[in-house]
Amino acid sequence: MVKYLHGFNSQEQQRLKDQAGFLAPLIYPTVDFSGCKKLLEIGSGVGAQTRVLLGLFPHLQITSVDFSSAQLDKAKENLKDFESRITFVNQDAERLLLHDKFDSAFICWALEHITSPIAALQQLRTHLLPGSKIHITEVFNSTFYCYPKSPAMDYYYQKYNEQQLRFGGNPDVGSQLGNLLFQAGFSKISLLHNGFHLDQSNPAELKRFIDFWKILMKSGADGLLEAGMVTQEDIAQMENDLDRVTADENAVFFYQFVQAKATV
Ligand SMILES: C[S@@+](CC[C@H](N)C(=O)[O-])C[C@H]1O[C@@H](n2cnc3c(N)ncnc32)[C@H](O)[C@@H]1O
């Protein structure tokens, strides 16, 4: 059995599509592949980011790599209308072996799940031409802060992150992107922080992001229940805590992810 925090069921596959649309306004303003022709995407999932990239950069041909055939099957279905511009590859990013070279690369929410992100980046680099651009967006879960204090949310979040670690991933991999890219031999590395800092000055936006967060948290629920790390009651209380935050007049909801750019 593949140990993967979010699982591969159809609800999760739909979540990835919704998430890509929801977060696109935060992720893509800093992504620039203009002038690039062949992009390698690692951990492409159901092709939700691939679709955004294909739309934004009409000259790109994309090779999408994922180690889950279930995700790739769904991606093929989701991207039928872009068939001529995509190649799908079922491989583990840590042992990538392609007979092709690329001038650009993209990774989003995938290194966090990979046991050796340095191996994945080293492998990736061998497939990139000199001067290639890479763009990575990754989690930095320790940055999460919410007010008022929410013990059930804190408890669930601790278990959620523990599960990620137990499965060989790193819920704070975003913090390491600079080191990882440097150690993998990339140059011109730059890091950006992005995310949200919401409060009652914009209650609609606060609610929108807290609702998104609930769905994200619940994407780990099946695995956490199966491992006996949380109960149904813990999940319900975590959701109640988040509802209380939404309604609190002094609510604060804060999270930062990391975006890295570099060159070969
Ligand atoms: C959270 S999803 C993100 C998918 C996509 N990048 C997006 O943002 O919608 C992470 C994806 O990485 C894939 N993945 C995890 N470990 C991998 C590995 N070692 N090699 C290739 N793919 C991997 C999973 O199968 C999953 O589809």
From TrEMBL:
Methyltransferase type domain sequence ranges: 40-132
CDD domains attached to this UniProt entry: AdoMet_MTases (cd02440)
Keyword Ubl conjugation set for record: no
Highest rank taxon of the organism: Bacteria
UniProt-listed SUPFAM superfamilies: S-adenosyl-L-methionine-dependent methyltransferases
Pfam name, any one: Methyltransf_12
The protein's name in its UniProt record: Methyltransferase domain-containing protein
Family annotation (Gene3D superfamilies): Vaccinia Virus protein VP39
Molecular function in Gene Ontology: methyltransferase activity
Biological process per Gene Ontology, one example term: methylation
Coiled-coil residues: 65-92
Organism annotation: Algoriphagus alkaliphilus
